[in-house]
Write a structure and sequence with these properties.
By secondary structure, this protein is mostly beta strands. The N and C termini lie far apart (40 Å). The protein has one domain (2-97): N-terminal domain of TfIIb. A hairpin with a 6-residue loop joins strand 5 and strand 6 (54-59). The chain has one helix and eleven strands, in the order βββββββββββα. The strands form three sheets. Strands 5, 6, 7, 8 and 9 form a five-stranded antiparallel sheet that branches.
């Protein structure tokens, strides 16, 4: 069962994360064939707003950026993905907002 679904900006690719944290990307124009390898322990994914081939996702505590099937070097992060456009990713870290009174 899917936990999260996300379409890219031109609706040609679909990213899916299931309840176990497995992520795959499907090419909708090519009969739903999987693009690249399945990823494990993914908890968030976000497509670029302006480039249909760019995807960002969080795997454990690492942020990955993918262009087509080529992955960039990961960045250590525990933040939540908010927006991805113009080759820039905006994130938020709720732990920094939390205060004990």
């Amino acid at each position: 069962m899917p936990e999260q679904l996300a379409l890219n900006c031109n609706s040609t690719r679909l990213g899916i994360i299931d309840k176990e944290g497995n992520m795959c990307v499907l090419d909708i124009e090519n009969e739903g064939k999987m693009i690249g390898d399945e990823k494990k322990e993914v908890w968030s994914l976000l497509w670029s707003n302006d480039n249909p081939t760019m995807l960002s996702y969080m795997e454990k505590n690492r942020l990955y950026i993918v262009r087509d099937t080529a992955k960039e070097e990961p960045v250590l992060s525990g933040a939540y993905l908010c927006e991805f456009s113009d080759l820039e990713i905006k994130v938020t870290n709720f732990l920094n907002w939390y205060r004990l009174y």
